[in-house]
Design brief:
Number of helices of chain B: 11
Family (chain B): Belongs to the GMC oxidoreductase family.
GO molecular function (chain B): flavin adenine dinucleotide binding; oxidoreductase activity, acting on CH-OH group of donors
CATH class of chain B: Alpha Beta
Protein name (chain B): GMC family oxidoreductase
Strand content of chain A: under 5%
Structural class of chain A: mainly alpha
Largest sheet of chain A: none
Order of helices and strands of chain A: HHHHHHHHHHH
Helix content of chain A: 40-55%
Domain Glucose-methanol-choline oxidoreductase C-terminal (chain B): 432-556
CATH superfamily of chain B: FAD/NAD(P)-binding domain
Oligomer: heterodimer
Radius of gyration of chain A: 21 Å
Domain Glucose-methanol-choline oxidoreductase N-terminal (chain B): 144-334
Number of helices of chain A: 11
Amino acid sequence: MADKTNKEKQFSRRDFLKTTGVATGGIIGGSMLGGLVGFRLDSPTEEADTGQQSAEQGAEGGGNSGSYNPGRMFFHNDTTFDTISQAMERIYPEDDMGPGAIALGAPFFLDMQLAGEYGNNTREYMQGPFYEGEATQGYQSRLIRSELFRLGIERLDTEANEMFDDDFRNLDGGQMDEILTRFQEGEADMGVPAATAKPQDFFRLLRSATIEGVYADPLYRGNHNMEGWKMKNFPGHQHAYIQEIDTDSFTEIEPQPLFGGNH
Amino acid sequence: MATELDKVDVVTIGVGWTGGIIAAEAAKAGLSVVGLERGRERGTEDYQNIHDEYKYAIRYELMQDVSKETLTFRNNREQRALPMRQLGSFLLGENLGGAGTHWNGQTWRFLPYDFEIRSMTEERYGSEKLREDEGYRLQDWGITYDELEPYFDQFEKTAGISGEDNPMAGERSDAYPTPPMIKTRTLQMFEEASTNLGYSPIMMPSANLSEQYENPDGESIAACQYCAFCERFGCEYGAKSSPEVTVIPTARKTGNYEVRTHANVVEVLKDEDDDSRVTGVRYVDVRTGEEFIQPADVVVLTSYVFNNYKLLRVSDIGQQYDPETEEGTLGRNYCYQIFGGATGYFDEQFNTFMGAGALGMAFDDFNGDNFDHSDLDFLHGGNMAITQTGNRPIATNRTKPDTPSWGSEFKKESIESYTRTLRVQGQCAILPHRDNYLDLDETYNDVYGVPLVKLTFNFTDQDLAVQKYVTEKAGEVMEEMGANDVVLDAASTDYDITPYQSTHNTGGTVMGDDPETSVTNTYLQHWDRDNLFVVGAGSFAHNSGYNPTATVGALAYRCAEGVIRFAEEGGRLEEE
């Protein structure tokens, strides 16, 4: 079970400032004020005796992480990044359950993945010849994932302009959904032969990368503040459940990240 | 070109469960053993930061690098076989321990019926039930359950398996070495429901141990901490029996064993002067590209199903199976598994995120021939189970069939269902069919220039019928468990190599008592080459409704006995 005293260490000073509203100029409530006072700004990794509970609440509040920006490795163009971010947000939108893909940092997750092994299909068989194949034979395109994402993003805009006369990122949610559905159902035009890329392949990757970015360990830059896990009641990295495994009632446990948590 | 090394008594190709067991037994008997492992060294110290679903479960960190080697696949001979470019349906192992590192630990013995499936089916139902005119090719394994029982017992004691007696399975000579795991709330619900329905549920035999255990070789296995990261992960506690914490250290302690990592075997070398022998193997150091010849008195193929087949085929040992003429034995009887289950939606929240890989309950009332098939259009069946392996958030997003797979409705329902759904599932047998087999691909090669294995496989009418039957039974159990809504799994159609199903591939190098229908005898000794042994799930003549590892382990112990006897006496082992 998470130990609240040690757990506090995982919040960086920056997170703390943001969640309490200091950095963004937000209003600090009574309980938050107590937290701020108790928190020693000069040693952010050392918890203060009085500040823990408040910082905890602040972190759980979510909704503040739109400003989360760990930087980008793959998407060098702001417009491209905005387009894919909007598409991911439609897959996993912010709503009354909690933050969506953007607030959770899922686009930054995808950005880092596309720059590395995932984007380059490093551990996958990419030797030719390439043929279209049956659906049961799986992915057969010559495109690596980073190429498929670049193409797919281009085609989101192409479809958007044909249907609604504007770029994808400027459409309303319903219009975006219409376009994404066309990709999902294989109706969108990828502008290349089907053996090279199918719209449903792009959609499948977009959907899975969004879910991965929402729920992967924060190590991968998504699931910001473990808000994805908190919505789902997943406790993340816990060393053991041997003390709780035979309890009959549901057990809520504060999540822990793989690194930087209570080890 | 290739550098020839000093000869050893025994060389094994691949160091997982089977390679480790052969090594431990042969080295203890005083034989010098080299284990050639294409991957790298690893062990418990490498699994200390293993609770990472994305890296290990989604991106397959511990599994085979298929950029180097994969297989090609087609559903039938009319299709063009294409490479399995990404892992999906099954997860091939790599590195020390092989798939034995990232198994769940569900350790079932196959049923007495399995080993004599042809004779027992014929006896009870008549030969028509074998459906040979439809292409089914059931065959006995050449060994009975009773003959194999001591080897099952030996494997279970090595691994310290936690379990309890199963009234629907074969007789045991001894109890499980450790008691069953903790019976959690969801398991109790399953137990009560299946008992109400007249079935015989038991705690699943588990290689995640219920308590600290020292095996007969003196290896210590820790007690499971229920951390919920088992399948696709290695155990940070050394509490999941795996080759790295049992047989490999046992073999190393003897001083007679060397594991040589980064050594990818590309050929078994035939004796040019004696067509009843092999002389050793040729391998590539995957880091330097250098080639070596490792001579050995005995060669044991202990890699996975596909590579055991492939090494025989590319070395031109034995005759390739031809589905047109049905001549040849190498590559025949490839089988897999098919699953049918039910998802129950509850109001109550369960601790579904806690668990262990083999934490579960199951019953075998619909497995093997434990129920009357007279009026059914299929044979065999499946083990029906609930498991609490630890649901993780990327992979577990259950929604009802009419719910969109993305957007707000998806988000809400998948979040709520994460702790409010349970599954009961049957793991069903696949029976051998003329059209399902392994061959060598003509177009695609691995990075060493060796052709890929070509898999031709589809579900047959038999498989789809057993799935339908078991799915309905799973639904009845879930109803009885009190779910608000019960959703039955959709029926399968063509086998699809992309979604994960199970790493329970079998056949291709089948064992038996007849060289016309098998590749090895029941000591796993090759019919043509006396000093060549081939062991693993590839030895199965069909696949049962169970996880395969206990049966693989039992065969490996029998094979080890054969290897040692052969090293002492030589000759054919099937001749009594």
